[in-house]
Amino acid sequence: MTRNVRTYDHFCVIARALEDVGDRWTLLVIRDLLSGAKRFTDLMDRLGAITPKTLTQRLRELEDTGIVAADRTPGRREVWYRLTPVGEDLRPVIDALGWWGLKHAWRWPQENEPMHAEHLLRAVAQAIDMVADAHVTELWHFRIDGADYVIEGDGKHWSHRAGTPQVAADVTITARTDALKRLIFGESDLDVEIEGASAKVQRFRKLITTLATVVSAQETSSR
Amino acid sequence: MTRNVRTYDHFCVIARALEDVGDRWTLLVIRDLLSGAKRFTDLMDRLGAITPKTLTQRLRELEDTGIVAADRTPGRREVWYRLTPVGEDLRPVIDALGWWGLKHAWRWPQENEPMHAEHLLRAVAQAIDMVADAHVTELWHFRIDGADYVIEGDGKHWSHRAGTPQVAADVTITARTDALKRLIFGESDLDVEIEGASAKVQRFRKLITTLATVVSAQETSSR
DNA sequence: CTGGATCCATGATGATACTG
DNA sequence: CAGTATCATCATGGATCCAG
After folding, report:
1. Domains, chain B, ranges and CATH?
2. From CA A84, how far away is CA A68, in angstroms rounded?
3. pTM surpassing 0.85?
4. Positions of strand D less than 7 angstroms from a protein CB
5. Interface contact A9-B86, CB threshold 8 A
6. Which of A11, A13, A9 is CA-nearest to residue B117?
C-alpha cells in the first residue's frame, strides 16, 4: 500500500489540518460519513469517480489519524466506517465549505452528471439554513429509492442526516431521486408522495424550493 | 500553462467548493492572503516548499474563479495579489480548519522546521480565541523582523492580520521570530521588547502563552 | 531584486479488470 | 461486499535559469 506522506512542513495550524484532511477526496469521504456510518460500497456509490484503490488509501489514512473508525464484526465481511469524535469535529469545516460552495461555486447540474439524493438534500438543508427566516421546528422524513433521510430545523439551524427519524415526522416524502430533483428545482411534483398535516405540507412546499430560489438569484449576478 | 482541471462531477455544494479550493496548496495561499495582500515572493516565503510553477498555477486558477485579484500597477513590475470579496468569504473555512487543526492536528515543531511569524501569530490568536474566557478589547502590535502584525481581541473574538494598527496599540512587541517563538512557548523572554502600560503588559504576558498551554494539555491526551 | 519560465524526475491519481 | 492488481497519465517536486 503506497501511503500518501506529503507534508507541508509549516509550523501552522492550517497546514497541519490540511496534512490530515487536505488530500483529494478526503473531505468528501468525511462529508459522506458526517451523515452517518457507511460501508465501502456505500461510499463508492456516493463518491462516483473515485477508484477503489484511492478510497482504500484514504480510509487507511483517516484511520491512522483517528478521524475514522472501522467497525468489523467478527464472522461477517461487512465493514462499517464511521467518524470518531475527532472526525465529528470536522463538521464546522464541511459546513463552512458548504456555505461558501452554495454562495459562490454553485452550478446547475451538467448533462448526465451523477446526482445522489443525500447530496441534494444536504444542499437543500444548507440553502434553507442560509436564507432562513425559517426559525421553525420541523422534521421531514424522506424515503428516496428505499433509503431514509431526515431534514430537520431545530428552530435555529437546519441540518440533514441519513437514517430514519427518532421522533414522528411532520412531513413524509416518498419519491425516486429524479422525481425529488424535479420537486426541488420547482419543475413538477409528479411521482412525489407528500404526507402530513395540511399546514405542515404547505410549509414544506414553500421551503423545499429554497435551493432553486437561492441559485437562480445568484445565476443572474455571478460567474 | 498546464491547468489543473480535475473535477469531482458531483452535484454537491461541498464538491463544487473543493473543485475551486481543494487542490494542494490552494487553501494555504488563501490563508496567507486573508491576513493581507501579498506579492509573489511574499507568498513563496510563507509557503516554503511550493515551487514557483505551482504557485503561478494556483494564482491563475484563483484569478479564474474570482477568488483572487492581481493588482498590476502600470509601469511597475510589482504585482500585489489580494482576495476579492468572494475570497474573503473563505475566512470561515480557514477559521474552521484552524480550530480543528489546533484541537486535533497540532504537533510541536520538528527540528529545523521552517516557521513564519505570521503563522505563529495566527496560532496564538486562534488559541486565545478557542479557550477565551478572555472577553477583553485589546490590541497588540508585533514588529517581527521588520514586518508588522496585529493581534486583536474585540471583546468577542481574537484575530490576527498583517500590517500596522489603525489605532494606538495597548502593547507593542519587538523581536525576531526565534525570540518570539521562545516567548510564546513559555521558554524565555530574552531579546523580546515589550512596551505598554503595566496592566496591559501583564495581561499580554498571561495570554501569550495560551498556545503553549493548550498544546501541552492535548499532548498528554492525544496521539 | 521581483516574477516568473523550463526541464526532468517522481509519485499520486485515473481507468479497467479481477478476486476471496 | 470489500477490496487488489496493473498500467497509463497527470500533477507536483526539485533544480536551474532568465528577463526587466
Report:
1. 13-89 (1.10.10.10), 95-222 (3.30.1050.10)
2. 5
3. yes
4. 1-6, 10-16, 20
5. no
6. A11
